[in-house]
Specification:
Helix content is 20%, strand content 34%. It is of the alpha+beta class.
Length: 344
């Protein structure tokens, strides 16, 4: 009898392990002319990969520039990725934005009103260089720099620094400038430049490996896209580009039906982050503060008065970026202040 009981237990455990393994599959997605969306988020874009909630995907993204311009700036032809050449030559459906985004990925069971939890598990460099550039009429000081310039910047992956110039080395903190889902179908094609309710081109340098992004879902399957790889960036991204490069990221996607929010939020190992996205910087700050108050009320069970006070004495506002149509401000509050089991 004991043998039959033991056998039943073993079979049940084996079945559970198999179900968990199946529910958390691992996928890989590389950029090809058939697996990218050039310059837009759109609820009508057919998915290039379907996964289940809990699955992990290794996604490769491409530097947003043309092979010709990179070579003209000094990149050896053999260091220009063949996938970038193929996509530049073959993809005809481009714009209205300029980012080459890998995806979209359809996550089963994700429905409008849910939240997509995006765990950024790992990020690594894909090429040994980055570029920074500005152009006429763009950036935060367009009148001061009414011409174009591009600079190729070598990346030392072993030491994790960018060799900006003799005597200047920048520590690398790779992150994806653009991570987002489809907007509501009624919006149509959303320009990949301005971030909005579906996240997108946040350019938030704090969203490195080990952090989590929470995005409201607006279309069935969420339709996640990612790109605009940065080896590093300053808050503000004032000349309109960062250390632009190709990256490989590992993400885990979890559909959260227990969460409901209007705007993206994020979490690092040390901080909670709320965001404000608007074409007016004051409106961005207002939204980020209100989102922090809502977070503290709903997640930390503070009164609105105490949440407002705590935001003033413990949280920090940062200018995320200034140059992508919608500007960004994010507010960070440290987890360490929530002691005695209060931290969630």
């Amino acid at each position: 009898m004991r043998r039959f009981v033991l056998l039943g237990v073993l079979l049940a455990v084996s079945s559970l392990v198999a179900r968990r393994s199946q529910a958390q599959a691992t996928h890989a997605l590389k950029p090809t002319p058939k697996t990218v969306a050039w310059g837009y988020y759109d609820a009508k874009t057919p998915p290039v990969l379907r996964i289940k909630s809990g699955d992990t995907v290794e996604i490769q993204t491409l530097i947003t520039n043309s092979p010709e311009r990179l070579e003209k700036a000094g990149v050896p032809p053999d260091q220009v990725e063949q996938s970038l050449r193929d996509i530049t030559a073959q993809v005809k459906d481009k714009g209205p934005g300029g980012h080459i985004l890998t995806g979209p990925i359809y996550i089963e069971d994700a429905q409008p009103g849910d939240v997509l939890e995006v765990k950024i598990l790992a990020i690594k460099l894909a090429i040994p260089y980055a570029y920074n550039a500005f152009g006429p009429g763009r950036g935060y000081l367009p009148d001061d720099f009414p011409y174009s310039k591009i600079k190729i910047i070598p990346l030392d992956e072993k030491r994790m620094v960018a060799k900006f110039a003799p005597g200047i080395e920048i520590p690398l903190h790779p992150f994806f400038g653009s991570m987002g889902v489809a907007p509501p179908e009624s919006v149509g094609k959303w320009n990949s430049g301005p971030p909005w309710i579906m996240a997108g081109n946040l350019d938030n340098k704090d969203l490195v490996a080990g952090t989590t992004l929470y995005i409201p879902v607006h279309a069935p399957g969420a339709l996640f896209e990612v790109g605009d790889g940065h080896a590093g960036q300053g808050d503000g991204e004032v000349d309109i580009t960062a250390l632009e490069t190709s990256l490989i990221g590992t993400f885990q996607f979890i559909v959260r039906k227990d969460m409901h929010m209007k705007w993206p939020r994020a979490e690092t190992p040390t901080h909670y982050i709320t965001m404000g996205l608007n074409d007016d910087l004051n409106a961005c700050a207002t939204q980020a503060v209100r989102e922090m108050i809502d977070f503290l009320v709903t997640e930390k069970h503070l009164s609105r008065d105490d949440a407002y006070m705590l935001s003033s004495v413990a949280a920090d506002l940062h200018i995320t970026e200034l140059v992508d149509g919608n500007k960004g401000v994010h507010m960070m509050i440290p987890k360490a202040i929530f002691v005695s089991g209060a931290s969630k």
